[in-house]
Each structure stands twice: as structure tokens, then as C-alpha cells.
Amino acid sequence: MKESTIATKVMIAVLCLGVAVYLAVYFVRGWAEGVVTTYAYSYSLDAGHEALGILVREETPLNGSGGYVDQIIGEGAKAAAGEPVVLLYSDASALTTRQSIRSLEAEIEQLEYAYSSGTQNTDSARLDAQVIGSIVSLRSLAAKGDLTNLDDCALNLRSMVFKRDYTYGDASAAGQLAQLIADKRAQLSELNHSLNQLSTTVSAPVSGVYSAGVDGWEGVVTPAMLDELTADSLTALLSEKHAPDALSVGKLITGSTWYYAALLEGDDTGLQSGRTYTLNFSGDYYGQIDMTLERVSLEEDRTLAVFSCRSHLADTAMLRVQTVDVVTQQLEGIRIPRKALRVETETVTDEDGSTREVNRYKVYIIERSQAWGREVEVLYTADTYYLVRPIDPSAAKRLRAGDEVILNSSNIYDGKVVR
Questions:
Q1: CB 3.0–4.6 Å: which of 161, 307, 347, 381 could bond 291 by disulfide?
Q2: Is 274 within the bounds of a domain?
């Protein structure tokens, strides 16, 4: 009986050991053969070259006698010759007075709008809806932090409220509003009189676009010097430092065309004169601007490029030395991780009987639990991904956006069951 018990225990131990070994081998093979996947997706990018350059414009500085500066027209606004553009105050309190004048002018404007609208027949229900709509718009702008149209929205809401008083038959509202407008006008006249005694007006000597950004480069770089500009002279220019005149109160950009003179590394940039390129600005100004390449000069291991543009003048009026990306090619394809691309070498026999080795690039996808290779062409190589496209975009069996691609698996081949 004891011998039977011992034999049984030995058999059970051997069986358990065998099961343990089997499971261990299974898990090790499963780990080694494990399939890691991800999904391919459509992707587009702008390929090009980084450039360091300087913005060149026809500029006329505006000089004042010092004091406190207050702009009459906004940044990037057009000014005619002789038009007032800046007020100079000898006393800091004048700035507070000027702010009061602006608030008062806006208040009078909305009161007059409400008064002129009060005599017109208006549907009460429709007016109530407009008031509610104005409140919702105002709340939405405040919630998003968008202050661009906040003043206009507030002005519209106040005008709607005044107009609503007329609609609901407030007989005394019209007379009270007319008297309020007269009082506000008298107050405005008094403030303007006191401010005129403390201010000096600076007018535009010529017509142009006004900008408050004065950096000391005005007159140093001009469009007239661009024809003689070289890579060496631009390098020396970019290393210079300039400070604005302490008495400058702004500038006028008098030309309708502005330029960007830039240095690019290498002499094989593919840039061609006369073509339009997109420049991506991402520093002090964020945006894309289409510019025409006026001149390109290949000098040793550098390229000098001069671009021109007749738009976005107000957006770029305060920019000077800028680093941009010059887009030379826009690529669209399918983005895959670097691990997903496999290189398979095949021996090809030519018509003359000679043989040669050809590298084919493949991406393996999972379709119905099986692996299938899809041949692709590499369009762009990045640090972590490739941008590819199918060799035959019209083929039924090709790589598509949304396919589940295999990242790492040993002994992969077409038709292999991976799941």
C-alpha cells in the first residue's frame, strides 16, 4: 500500500513538472512571438528649410518732443499725409483724461443710436430675442477670454436695452435720453478743452501704415540695398545691434511691398526665382505668408534668398529679425512608426541575364488574423516615424489609413497567422 502511494506521488510530481515546463515554454514563446500593433493614419506635412533673416521695408520714423504718448490711430492703420496719428502729453494725468474722453465718446454714440432707433416701430418679441442674444454673445466672449469684439458687443447690448424702453411705451424715456445726451456732450467738450492745453499733435509727414514698433533699424535696412546684398553682408548685418531713438513715437511704412532677406544652410535648396513659397512664422508672429522669391544666390555652403510680399503688412509691421520655415514641398501620405517599416532584399534578373539586389520597403498589416505585406514608398523620414504611400495607389491590396500595422514580430511573412 505504501509503495502504491509513493508511486502515485512520483507520477503526480512528474505530471506537474511536465505541465509547468509546457506552460513555461508556451509563455516564453508567446512573449518572443508577441505581436505589437498600432494604426496607420493619414498625415500631411510641410517640408522645407529653416531660414534666418530680416524684414526690410520703406520706413519713416516719427519723432516727438518727449512726454507721454497716446495713439490716435491703431497699430497697422493707414494714415494720410497730414493726418494726426499721435498725441504727446506733458502731464501723466492727461492720459486719464484721454481715457475718459474715449469712454464718453462711446457712451454718447450708443445713446444717440438708441435715441435714433426709438422712433421706429419695433416688434417687442423680436427685440426681447435680440436682447437675450446680445447677453448670450457677451457671456460667450467673456467665457472664452476673447476681448476682440467685447466693446462692440457691450455697445450693442446697451443700445438694445435703451430701445426696449421705447418699445414698452416709456413716454418719459425719450426726453430723459435727449437731456442725457446733451449733458454728455457738454462734459465731453469740457474735457477736450482741458486736454488740448496739455497735448501736442504729431501728424503723418507722408501717407503710409502706422506702427508704434520702432527698433532702430529704420533707415539701416532698405529695399534699395537688396540688389547688392550678399550672404556675407547679410551675416554681418544680422550680427548688428540697433536701439531706437528715445524721441521716436512710431513710424510710417510708406511702401506697399515689404521684403524678407534670409540665409539658408546649404547650396542645394531647390529654390527658384519667380516662384511663390509659403513661409511659416512661429516666433513673434504665428502664421503662414505666401511670398514671391525675387532673388536667390548660391554662395559656398549657404543660400541667400530675398522674398517679397504685398499683403500682411499690418501683421508684420513690428517684426524685424525672424527665423522662419520656407516650405518647398507639401507632402501627404500615411504615417507609420519607424518600427513598422521593413526592408526586404530581393535578387532581380535583368534582360541581359545580370542579377542585382533590390530593396523593397514593406509594411505588414493584420487582416483576418493573418499578416500581409504591403509595399510602400518612403516620402519623408523623421526621428520617430516615416511618411509613406503605396507603390500602387490604385491596387486593391495596398496600405490604407486605418490599417492595423505590425511593429515587431520575428519570422513575419505573408499569410502567417498572428492571432
A1: 307
A2: yes
